[in-house]
């Protein structure tokens, strides 16, 4: 019995002394604090800004947020109530200081939305600073600075020893990074689907291109044959003007006097040259199935000098 009574006395004293001790330490701790966190994010500043100001979608990517009730919304200011899964209600005011660069959040956390006379668990402000990377457009640095006030001494001790004053910021950043990673995965899946679709379309394009080349081949072949035939006629067949000139030359030779020895010698040389040319032309034409000797002229018979 003595042991049991001693244990009960120890528990009673401990339950009284420990809260009193924590309260004393909490009084010694300053009520206000300032903490800051920075994180590099791979997305454009405009997209990050849209995520921060779209408070109605907070429950979609913040697991601790059950729902959001927008009370007032103006051009540069939004007032809403954030309902957490721990049945806490946080009244938040968003004030846009500089679009796409600086956003001020004023918040006050209470255990109940109706208990306005109770001391808030936490009150303070968050300042979101978006710093654009100079080299990359889709790379930004988000800096969140919390200036908070915890009025309850025991809560201050709990945050200092167990949770830390940066707990809220760290949870918000982790949820934000998870959302960005999810969007990147979805974007990558869409790109892979488009690439596969393009790869499937490429074989049909290649086949159609080959068919077009096959259709164009006869036309090219016909063109080459026509060019070869024209070249053949220009090099092998005699020209009408050349034929007429040769005929006139022979007629002129027939009209010349035949009694001159020099002229006879010239005639003999000319006849020999013409005979040689006739032989070459005859051989050239006969190879190709042509007999052009009778078509050019009838060579005169040789006369002795």
Automatic annotation (TrEMBL):
Keywords: Membrane, Ribonucleoprotein, Ribosomal protein, Transmembrane, Transmembrane helix. InterPro entries: COQ10_START, START-like_dom_sf. Residues 187-219, 253-277 are annotated as: Disordered. Residues 43-153 form the Coenzyme Q-binding protein COQ10 START domain. GO terms for cellular component: ribosome. The chain crosses the membrane at residues 7-29. This is 60S ribosomal protein L35, L29. It comes from Mucor velutinosus. The gene is rpl35_1.
């Amino acid at each position: 019995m003595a042991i049991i009574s001693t244990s009960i006395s120890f528990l009673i004293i401990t339950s009284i002394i420990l809260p009193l001790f924590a309260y004393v330490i909490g009084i010694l701790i300053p009520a206000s604090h300032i903490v800051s966190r920075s994180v590099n994010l791979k997305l454009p500043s405009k997209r990050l800004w849209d995520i921060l100001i779209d408070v109605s979608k907070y429950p979609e990517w913040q697991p601790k947020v059950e729902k959001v009730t927008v009370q007032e919304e103006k051009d540069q200011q939004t007032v809403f109530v954030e309902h957490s899964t721990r049945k806490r209600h946080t009244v938040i005011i968003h004030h846009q200081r500089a679009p796409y660069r600086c956003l001020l959040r004023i918040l006050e956390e209470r255990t109940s939305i109706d208990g306005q006379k109770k001391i808030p668990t936490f009150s303070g402000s968050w300042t979101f600073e978006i710093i654009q990377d100079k080299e990359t457009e889709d790379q930004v640095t988000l800096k969140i600075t919390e200036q908070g006030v915890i009025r309850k001494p025991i809560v201050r001790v709990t945050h200092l020893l167990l949770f830390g004053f940066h707990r809220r910021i760290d949870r918000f950043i982790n949820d934000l990074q998870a959302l960005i990673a999810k969007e990147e995965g979805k974007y990558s899946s869409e790109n892979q689907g488009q690439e596969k679709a393009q790869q499937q379309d490429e074989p049909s394009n290649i086949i159609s291109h080959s068919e077009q080349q096959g259709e164009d081949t006869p036309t090219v072949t016909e063109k080459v044959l026509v060019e070869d035939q024209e070249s053949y006629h220009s090099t092998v067949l005699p020209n009408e003007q050349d034929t007429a000139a040769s005929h006139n030359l022979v007629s002129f030779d027939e009209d010349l006097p035949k009694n001159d020895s020099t002229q006879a010698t010239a005639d003999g040389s000319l006849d020999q040259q013409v005979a040689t040319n006739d032989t070459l032309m005859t051989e050239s034409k006969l190879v190709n199935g042509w007999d052009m000797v009778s078509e050019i002229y009838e060579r005169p018979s040789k006369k002795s000098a």
